[in-house]
Each structure stands twice: as structure tokens, then as C-alpha cells.
Amino acid sequence: MQSETIGALATALSKAQADITGALKDSSNPFFKSKYADLASCWDACRSQLSANGLSVIQTTQMTEQGLMLVTTLAHSSGEWISGQMPVLTKDNSPQGQGSGITYARRYALAAIVGLAQIDDDAEAAQGRKTSPKLDQDLVNLINSQSSTESLTKLFNKLSKEQRMTHIDAFTARKKELTDSSETA
Q: Is the dihedral of CA 171, 176, 181, 182 positive or negative?
């Protein structure tokens, strides 16, 4: 679904996407032994770029004949909007099961509506490259000097793709440190 026109929204989204680099895979799935970008990482990767271009994302749930649906709307300050629905799939009807299903749907719907990709920390291996580029110790020190996840994300978004890929472990470790310290404060 969408508003009658979406020209201003499309222009603003294009400008935002030019600055969105990708969501950092900083959460682990022990069952599949893999990393993924959680909902917070997805938001960290696009929130300021969307806001700077007059865009907002609204996510609500709606009960339909097909079951619970997540409705994600990308709105522009002009009043234009686009919207999509995604079924919320849960393994059970417990509050935890539903919360997990909603969070999962929110993450994928947000990524889809703004064109956000997860940065693959295994991209080098997928391309068959066996040597890792050398870490820049000055950049590692800069990463470790960041005092908030917001400043860390801004730094991450300013770097080249090669720098991000080379230093992904340093970013992930620092983000975990910042997140852990804010939870204990």
C-alpha cells in the first residue's frame, strides 16, 4: 500500500540510502553458530540517516484472518508513505514466543523497507580470499575510545567498506562492552 504519490518519499529515501552502510552483525545465534544484526543494530545503522531526510518508520501489529501481521510504514514529512505487511510467526503463543516473533518480523521488515543489508563478516571467506588485511592499530584505538554506541555507529558508517570489514571484530567487541556497561549502570 502507498499514498497517492511517493515522489518526495522516494527522493528522500534515495538520499538516506546513500549514507546507510549496513547493519553490523554483532549478535550470536548459538543454535546455528552464526552472527546476525539484531533489531538495535538495524536501527543504529539507519535511524539518523532516515531522520535527516524527513523519514520515519512506524511498526504496529494487526490481527487479520491470516493471523497476527506486522505492519511497517515508511512515512515522509511531506505526508507520503509506503506500507507493507509481514506475518508474525511464533513457535508458541507464550508472551516470550510472541515477543520473539514480533522482534524478528520488525528486524526483517525494517531492513526491507529501507533497503538495509547486514554486513557479512564472512564476506572475505565467501569470495575465496584467505589472507586478512592488516589491522590499523590507530583505528582500533579510535574504536576503543568511543564512549557510546551512537558515536561508535557514526564512526563505523564513516569508514570504507574495506575498513569496516577488516575491523568488524573490534567494532563488535566495543559495542558489546558499551552495551554491557550501560546495562549494569
A: positive
